[in-house]
Amino acid sequence: MESTLAAPSQSHSSESPIVKATGLERVYGEGQAEVRALDGVDVTFEKGRFTSIMGPSGSGKSTLMHILAGLDKPTAGSVEIDGEEITGLDDGDLTELRRDKLGFVFQFFNLLPVLTAEENILLPLSIAKKKPDQEWVDQVIDRVGLGDRRDHRPSELSGGQQQRVAVARALVTKPAVLFADEPTGNLDSKASEDVLTLLRGAVDDVGQTVIMVTHEPDAAAHGDRLIALRDGKLVHDAPPVSADNVIELLKTLA
Amino acid sequence: MLSLTFKNLWARKWRSLMTAVAVIFGIALVAGTYILTDTTNQAFDQIFNESIAGTDVVVTAKSEVDQQDGSTPSFSAGVLKEVRQVEGVDLASGGIFSQGAILDKDGESTGGGFSPQFISSTQPEIFEAVTYPEGRKPTGPREATLDKAAADRAELEVGDTILLAKVGKAVPFKLVGLTELGGSSFGGTSVAQVILPVAQKITGNVNRFDQIAIAADSGVSPEELRDRVQEVVPDTLRVETAQENADRNASEIRDSLQFLTIALLAFAAIALFVGSFVIFNVFSITVAQRTREFGMLRTLGASRRQILVTVLIEGLIIGLVGSIIGLFVGYGLAAGLSAVLKAVGAELPANALQVLPRTIIVSLLIGVGVTVVSSLIPAVRSTRVPPIAALSETLVTGGKSRVVVRTVIAVLLAAIGLILIAMTLISGTDGGTGAAQIGGGAVCVLIAISIFAPKLVAPAASIIGAPLEKIGGLTGRLARENAQRNPSRTAVTAAALMIGLALIAFVTIFASGLSSSVNKVIDDQLPGEITLQGQGGVVPFPAGAVDAARNVEGVEAASGVRYVSVKADGKNASISSVDPADIVQVYTVEWKEGSNADLTGLTDREMVIGDGLADSIGVGIGDPVTLTSQDGREFRFTVKAIMKTDSISLAGEGIITQTSMARDFDQRLDAVGLVKLDPDADLDSTQTAIEDTLKKQDYPTVDVLNQGELKDQQKQTINGLLAMIYVLLALAVVVSLVGIVVTLILSIYERTRELGMLRAIGMSRRQVKRMVRYEAVITAVIGAITGLIVGVVFAFLIGIPLSGDGFELSYPIGTLIVILILTALAGVLAAIYPARKAAKLDVLEAVSYE
Fold it and tell me: What is the pTM of this model?
């Protein structure tokens, strides 16, 4: 592992939390079938930091991210994003929130096959009917290294390239928080490294906040902070030291 | 495997049900048609059977030439004396049953629209089939009864006055009773009863009968008596047992209703044809979406055959469910259709709705057959899925060979269709045959276009999508891309709509052409300002009316026109008679050989003949022509002149004098009266004066129309028919709209993850809805535009051979544009549910969806 990245960068950390979750509970089902996916989670995320969320299957890590991103509603507790309480928002307000403050990267890339790479990147701006900041757009495209493939359709790109387009799409709106859900889950190690370097770079260079769910120790090691869940509870919260260190941690959780 | 099929169907029950809609409408129309006509036939059977109560043998006149109104000739009353002499006859009685007009005391018609009214004579008690729920049988010369249903419709009661008219002035009668015939309903038909001599007089049959009813002595069988009576009556008369008579009447009705059955079944076929597109599409999409499942089944050891059977059984069950639902809907539709017919004034008699086993069997067979056949190609495709498909991410799509096969079939069909059309146009085949050939060619081309359609989708969607992209920006763009993404899917959906719209455009243009052709006939052939018609233009009226009109101040000339169907040298022809003195002033004849002077000077043994008829029987000026009357008598006429005719010419295929018409062919009623005014007479006041005169002189059945009103009336008749065709074609259009709904829902299901992503990165529900709506509009408009183009082109092509018959096309551009806009709106309507479904997708589920 590259030790420079494994070591947490403190340069962008600030005291103001951009995401703040308090007393999160999420219960699925009822009675015998009741599953407590989250069982009282308090966590805050500072601006400009790269946090990895880990945990074994069923630990509640995905549920946590979905609730933080306003895609799922907690049974109890609250989530604030950039000072705004989001748990009570209706669909219209959540749509606005996603437009203005959130970016997403998914495991399965989720690009529109009918649009070119550049069009996919600009998609969030088109949806919100915002004028693209051309300088920033160029910079983002440059950053993901797809300058010569702007006009290619997703089917003409490799998986790694598609995921880089997806990252660019998430960055183009300069979101307050970028959520990444297993972004390397479908990629080989080289492509995974490219995507993680991209995310890392966005954090280091422009102070992007990134929250990533992953089950890959290598991926988690790119973050500034590693939190781990088990049975719906927060059981670990510290900077990752190395991938091996993370593997050890996962063993204790399992 | 079978239980898997059922589980699959159940898991996708809404989709399966929507697919079933594709056959439900068509089958409903099939079942509804059968139920309606069976019910009507049964009702007529009952009417005829109940009306022969107490009768053993019936004598009527044979009809040598079928008349358009279906009437049979009357015969001399002298026959009755001969019949009474026959051994074994207990009682014989002559009767009248003849079409006439039944009016209330103000001269307003008591019936509606096209339903016939009859004047009948009372029968001796033994033959009496009717009962009198109110009042009694007429006994005096000024007494009448009316059937109860008609009286209820017209709100008449015993004691009220009614007027009866046929060949003379309307005569008032006192209503002394209301009649019922067993449990039968007459539909819209009404029957008034008066005593025999009065009936004979009103209907112009003094000393004549329409029929003789005979009761046999006990011990003499009807068959025996029939043979004996046959011996003594002239062979122009037909002698039947009462049962034979009832059966023959019933079967004649059956034959005349056959046309209705065929017409309705044709519309059912259209709806089913469109439905087959929808079924094909749904199965194609479903099979594509289940590729991985089929692959998995193959890895588990399922054979191709098993896969094929699973898919086909799904089709079979959907077809079966659809047909059963269709049968029930058809039952309701039969009631609805008879209500529609009642509304347009053609009420059919009906008792309990008749559902024969044939109706059920045919409906199920057709419904299941159409569904299974439509799902055949997708089913075969499903067998081509290799086991590896279970593991791969991307869907396996069809190979090239099918595309080649498809193209070959399309090219062949198009070629056959075009050759058929071209041959007809080059050879100049006129009239019905030509139109039928071009119609057949059109169907071939239509199918070929549907097969080619995927190639048209991309450019068409780009053009139609352009304005939507202007308005909707990104949503418009995505909608257009989505429509183009799977061209064959969009193409089949649009093609289904295209068929309905092509037919709508076609009939719209044709109806408009018919209206303008009729207007042209009125303008070109009728120089007079006023036209006289009997009740709604369908019932002939007494000749005295035209004479009365001629004497009104301000009228310069007037002629009645009568029609009769005859055989001219053995060939069926409809000829007219006119008043030679006045005719050239009110009717413009285009001469081939001859002049107006020939017509003015026409004598009673001369005729003017149409060029078509003259050619086909091979006669020229000065040649004799033998005209055979309905009762088989023959009359010789000499050809005086030859006129040009076409199929909507007012003069028919020949003209004789009124005198010959009355004397030789016993036609004393005018179908239409043509009136020309003095140049300085005022139209409005003269028209009113004619109306008043006719009313005062007891011709209340005659309508007085000026040319504008006449055109309006013709237009209304055509538009009424057009409206009915629209309603029936709407079934096919609704089926194709359901096709849009299902296809959209399936596409949305396929794009769940994509929609989730769009929502995650900030697309609002409204934007999602708009995107789906635009896609529906693009699909609908592709279907509409191709449909309209196809309809216009075919109307143009079919109009060519018909133009020889005086038919000229006109293109109602405004109406066609309205149809286009309505179709786009229908697309929006079809998108409501899919759009809502897409907008309601849970973002979380959508992004974690696999």
Answer: 0.79
